[in-house]
Design goal:
This protein is α/β, with parallel strands linked by helices and 382 residues long. 37% of the residues lie in helices and 15% in strands. The chain has 13 helices and 10 strands.
C-alpha cells in the first residue's frame, strides 16, 4: 500500500471522526453473514473462471493508473497478484492528465498498449464512451456499485473513493490548523506547503471551493503567508514536518511519521470516485475483465483498496462516515467541475496569477522515460 493511501485510511479519518457503533440482533447478524458469505463465494467462483480465461489469453495486463509517484498504485497490483500470481502485471502510474493524453494518442495512432485505465480525470470517461473508445463490461459486483458513479450502460465505473484534506506536523499538537481559516494564522507564515493547484485538478477544485465560500480575499491572505508550492500531492504531504514546513491542505498524508492528517469539520474538502474502464482496443481484454472484476469484488473492496468502497454493500471503514454522509464534501463535485473544461481553464488561469507557473519535473516520471506507449514503469515495451 502506498504511503498516501494508507495514511488516508488511517490518520485522515480514524483519528478525527467519531464513529457510531451499531448493535444488531444476533439472528439478524448471523443471517447477514450467511448471505454475505454466499455472495462472496459466488464472486470468487466467477473470478476463478475469469482467471482461467485470462491465462488462456496469455496472462498479461497493463494498467494505466493516475498518481503522483511512480509506485503509488502498486498496492493494488500486489494485492491482485496474491490472488492471481500467474498474471504478468504491468502497472504504469503517472499524472492522470498525462495518461489521458497518452490514451488519446494511442487511439489516434492505432497502437493501444494499455488494457485498463483508472484515472482522476473524470470528464474523460463520458467522452471516451461517446467516441467509442471503451469496451462495454459490467464486472463482478456491478449491481452493488453506487449508481451515481457508474455508467448505466457499463462502459466505466467508479472503483473506489479518494480524498484530500489536511496534513499537519505532529509537533504542532493541538495547535495544528484544521479549518481553512486556521491556515491564515500569523504563526504559519513561511511554514505552509501546497501542491500547485494549476497542476492537479483535484487540488484546483479544493481551492475553487475555498474561494467560492470565502472569496478571493481568502486566497490573497493565504498567499500573504508565503507558502511553498511543489508538484504532486505526495511531495507536499512528505514536506510537512521537514525544513520548517508544518501544514498543508489538499493531500492525503505521509508515512514519514512527522505529520498527521485530519478532516475539517466545516471547511470544504475534496473526495471523488477514481474511475476505471477497459479500452475497446485493449490487447488483453480477458485479463482486463479479471482485474476490473477483482477490483470491484466485495473481498477486494473490503480488504485491498484501503479507502471508501465504490460498493453500497461495503461499510465505511471503522471510524468513518459513509462517503455521501459528510456535509462539507461532495463526492460528485469534482466530476461536475471537470466536465466544464472552459470554466475550469479560466479558473486555472486565474489561480496561476496568484501562485505562478508550475515548476518542476513530473513527479511520477522524474526521469522522463514513460513516453507515448509505456508498458513498464521505465517506459520500455516489455
Amino acid at each position: 500500500m502506498t504511503p498516501m493511501r494508507k495514511t488516508l485510511i488511517g490518520a485522515l479519518t480514524l483519528s478525527v471522526l467519531a464513529g457510531g457503533a451499531t448493535v444488531a440482533l444476533a439472528d439478524s447478524a448471523s443471517s447477514g453473514a450467511d448471505s454475505t458469505s454466499t455472495a462472496q463465494s459466488s464472486e470468487q467462483a466467477e473470478l476463478q473462471k475469469l482467471y482461467q480465461q485470462a491465462l488462456a489469453e496469455g496472462g498479461t495486463l497493463t494498467v494505466y493508473a493516475g498518481g503522483d509517484t511512480p509506485y503509488q498504485a502498486d498496492y493494488l497490483r500486489d494485492a491482485f497478484l496474491k490472488k492471481f500470481p500467474k498474471i504478468k502485471f504491468n502497472m504504469v502510474t503517472d499524472l492522470s492528465k498525462y495518461h489521458d493524453a497518452r490514451i488519446d494518442n494511442q487511439i489516434a495512432t492505432g497502437r493501444v498498449v494499455a488494457d485498463v485505465v483508472q484515472l482522476q480525470t473524470l470528464d474523460d470517461f463520458p467522452r471516451w464512451k461517446k467516441e467509442g473508445a471503451l469496451a462495454k463490461y459490467k464486472p463482478v459486483g456491478w449491481d452493488k456499485v453506487y449508481n451515481q458513479i457508474k455508467d448505466a450502460d457499463g462502459y466505466y465505473t467508479g472503483a473506489m473513493f479518494f480524498g484530500f484534506a489536511n496534513v499537519t506536523a505532529t509537533s504542532l499538537g493541538s495547535n495544528a490548523p484544521v479549518e481553512a481559516k486556521d491556515f491564515l494564522k500569523p504563526e504559519f507564515k513561511n511554514k505552509l506547503v501546497f501542491t500547485y493547484p494549476n497542476d492537479d485538478d483535484a487540488v484546483l477544485y479544493y481551492f475553487k471551493q475555498l474561494t467560492d465560500k470565502y472569496g478571493f480575499d481568502y486566497l490573497k491572505k493565504l498567499m500573504a503567508q508565503q507558502p511553498k508550492f511543489v508538484r504532486g500531492t505526495q511531495a507536499a504531504a512528505d514536506t510537512v514536518g521537514t525544513d520548517g514546513y508544518v501544514a498543508n491542505f489538499g493531500s492525503a498524508g505521509s508515512f514519514s511519521g512527522l505529520s498527521t492528517a485530519s478532516i475539517p469539520r466545516h471547511s470544504p474538502w475534496v473526495t471523488w470516485p477514481q474511475t476505471a474502464a477497459i479500452l475497446k482496443k485493449a490487447p488483453h481484454k480477458a485479463t482486463a475483465k479479471l482485474y476490473l472484476s477483482w477490483l470491484l469484488s466485495k473481498d477486494a473492496q473490503q480488504n485491498s483498496i484501503f479507502t471508501w468502497s465504490a460498493r453500497n454493500d461495503v461499510a465505511a471503514p471503522a471510524g468513518r462516515k459513509g462517503i455521501f454522509d459528510y456535509k462539507n464534501t461532495n463526492p460528485l463535485g469534482l466530476g461536475t467541475f471537470m466536465s466544464n473544461r472552459a470554466a475550469l481553464d479560466r479558473y486555472k488561469a486565474l489561480i496561476t496569477l496568484y501562485v505562478g507557473d508550475v515548476k518542476g519535473v513530473d513527479p511520477s516520471d522524474p526521469n522522463g522515460v514513460l513516453g507515448l506507449y509505456p508498458i513498464n514503469r521505465d517506459g520500455t515495451q516489455g
